[in-house]
Amino acid sequence: MARKKIALIGAGNIGGTLAHLAALKSLGDIVLFDVVEGVPQGKALDLTQCAPVEGFDAKIIGTNDYADIAGADVIIVTAGVARKPGMSRDDLLGINLKVMKSVGEGIKANAPDAFVICITNPLDAMVWALREFSGLPAEKVVGMAGVLDSSRFSAFLAEEFQVSIKDVTSFVLGGHGDTMVPVIEYSTVSGIPVPDLIKMGRSTQEKIDAIIKRTRGGGGEIVALLKTGSAFYAPATSAISMAESYLYDQKRVLPAAVNLTGQYGVDNLYVGVPVVIGAGGVEQIVEIALSDEAKANLDVSVEAVKELLVACKAIDPSLN
Ligand SMILES: NC(=O)c1ccc[n+]([C@@H]2O[C@H](COP(=O)([O-])OP(=O)(O)OC[C@H]3O[C@@H](n4cnc5c(N)ncnc54)[C@H](O)[C@@H]3O)[C@@H](O)[C@H]2O)c1
Ligand SMILES: O=C(O)C[C@H](O)C(=O)O
Fold first, then answer.
1. Interface confidence: ipTM more than 0.95
2. Which of 47, 83, 158, 320 could bridge across to 165 with cysteines, CB 3.0–4.6 Å?
3. Ligand 1: which atom is nearest the Cα of residue 96?
4. Domains plus CATH for the chain?
5. Among the bound ligands, the one closest to the CA of 13
6. Which residue, by CA, sits nearest to atom 1 of ligand 2?
7. Closest residue by Cα to residue 159 from 196, 202, 200, 219
8. d(CA 29, CA 62)
């Protein structure tokens, strides 16, 4: 069987880490695309020289030509600009919207059958715009944020409860911004929901509230420390888990930004919710019952995403 083909649009911090992970996991041959000449080629050469040590057969090329992504099975998009301290993700909207236009057109012309995972920020608006510009079916275009936000939430919960990360599950829903919604009712240690753990005296509401706040600001915390860019290891790992679920038809239930068509009372908007990812792309959108508080928080998050789409349409009238 021929190897799968993974195209990475954007060969920066996340793009390079994605390529490394995809090679180590032998997901397929890898094409690193970037507009900057030399960078994708240099990273591809460096990664190729990992092969003798690691023993992977994947072919890795760097390119500035969209023709090289032809036939890609999975495309992961990180093209654009990352924020610096003092900026919000939304400050990136104008510049990254233009990038999504060129990326969407490149995908449409060269790899219209791919499963596309967008990472570029502000995530919910950029994945919506990418789908519009690419014209691909909505079930084949998803945004990565929920896996990362939930992973951060789980890591903080494992630390608080002093338990193995393997026994912690959590869900963060909504837009990938300060209004994201960590849902404690569906966050568990070995199946025991966090509210029950509080009742059992294993933590306090105040401590969990602080963890929720830290999760919401998780990206900003890293931006403030790095100073020159944003998180890239955990974002790359998160996107690779989504790619694997598609490539291996794992049908994992993962939080992802998908186009809602009435679910959660939301229509024609990309927002983070639990979905099943398998060989068909987004195969199911899972509607979980939410407490009144979580639903109200999700509504606030949805409104924030709607405002971003208004801004996108004002910048690029072709999106109306
Ligand atoms: N969704 C998430 O959870 C999440 C997490 C982390 C970062 N991000 C976002 O991902 C994006 C990438 O982050 P990064 O750390 O890799 O940034 P980076 O600056 O290291 O890499 C971005 C790359 O995109 C390239 N690029 C710019 N315009 C392009 C175009 N038109 N076509 C192709 N490539 C182009 C740049 O040359 C650069 O190499 C940022 O927008 C960041 O905010 C999102
Ligand atoms: O915070 C950022 O700007 C990058 C990303 O969205 C993150 O959450 O790490």
1. yes
2. 158
3. 41
4. 5-144 (3.40.50.720), 146-314 (3.90.110.10)
5. 1
6. 219
7. 202
8. 11
